[in-house]
Amino acid sequence: MTNPKTSILIIYTGGTIGMIEDAQSGALKTFNFDHLFNEIPELKKYNLRIASFSFDPLIDSSNMNPSNWIKIASTIKENYQAYDGFVILHGSDTMAYTASALSFMLENLAKPVILTGSQLPIGVIRTDGKENLLTAIEIAAAQKDGKPMVPEVCIYFENNLYRGNRTHKFNAENFSAFISANYPSLAKVGVHIRYNHQAILSPKINFLIVHSQLDQNIAILKLFPGINQTVVDATLQINGLKAVILETYGSGNAPTDSWFLNSLENAIKKGIIVLNITQCKGGSVVQGKYETSSDSLKIGVTGGVDMTTEAAITKLMYLLGENFSTEEVKKLLSISLRGELSEEN
Q1: Fewer CB within 10 Å, N side or C side of the chain?
Q2: Phi and psi (nearest 5°) for 76?
Q3: Which pTM value belongs to this model?
Q4: CA dist., res. 262 & res. 266, Å (int)
Q5: Helix (H) or strand (E) run with residue 69 in it
Q6: Quick check: is 308 catalytic?
């Protein structure tokens, strides 16, 4: 049973989930969330106070950017005292980036922020959107002894609740579109919602701080067999570049060619942070495990442990935006700030 005093704010940013079929033309159109209970009468059975806020204009997730993350975070900040939980409806393509960003932007978060969406519009008969939305709301409202069950930024999709900054979209067609390869589900949903209490973060301080300075002077350099110096140098010599995510092989392995190592070392000497993230969806960077990663360690490449690329990008934006020194940023990249990496690795 839900508590009628519990209040949930739905923030609709855009995406597939918010589309319904026009009764006359049959074309898909944007769902008016002012009529939420008319379109989804099942919500009335929850006995919750539910309100909604829609972005104007709505954003296709392919157009999502840091300014939109700031707007979402600001909306949560403005309504933080008025609601017990938040559900963000978002296109699935960049959902893991937004969830990761919000996890760093919302420091000391003590209430659920659940992102969800769908692969099929909510107005289509076989939609996965209704179940995703209904369950996300139920999870956002869930409490035990007056405290939220999941006081962190999460993604709910197709029967699984994941920590947002551990998540990656891996399938463009299946309803089960996301994976969290390096961290267990926070909840599994079937007949019952079974929470993995040991995996859920608990806030140490119940005083929300919203960080809205994000530095976008970051690049990704993905290694591939045959990558040449022109490509590497073109990336490392970008004007204003402060950090580069080096997507390496396996457990952090990279070429040992002298030109490659020299290019990285020159960039590091100029103050550019080079963060080693594995291309693998599961597993961790362990620099020095093989000879092909030992040289990277020696020249000052920072190991990203088992962070996703999405978490690495948004963590760098957050840390650089906070104006930490280069050495402080490097140190903090190897520390779990919001549960984004496994420190025991």
Answers
A1: N
A2: -65, -45
A3: 0.92
A4: 6
A5: helix 66-79
A6: no
Name the maximum alpha-carbon separation found in the chain.
Answer: 66
**Measured in Å, how far apart are the chain's first and last C-alpha atoms?**
40
- Candidates 104, 114, 105, 191; CA nearest to 148 is 114
Burial of 98 (0-12, 13-18, 19+ CB in 10 A): buried
**CA 27/CA 41 separation, integer angstroms:** 22
Is there a cis peptide before residue 57, judged by omega within 30 degrees of 0?
A: yes
Residues 6+ apart with CB under 8 A from 162: 154, 155, 156, 178, 180, 183, 185, 186
Q: Which helix (H) or strand (E) holds 330?
A: helix 326-333
Express the helix, strand and coil content of the chain in percent, nearest 5 each: 35, 20, 45
| Ranges under pLDDT 70 in the chain | 1-4, 20-36, 174, 288, 290-293, 344-345
Phi, psi of 249, deg, nearest 5: -90, 150
d(CA 138, CA 141): 5
In angstroms, what is the C-alpha Rg of the chain? 21
pLDDT in tens, 242-271: 999 999 999 999 999 999 999 999 999 999
Residue that is written with structure tokens 């399938």 in the block? 171
Cβ proximity of 165 and 311 under 8 Å: yes
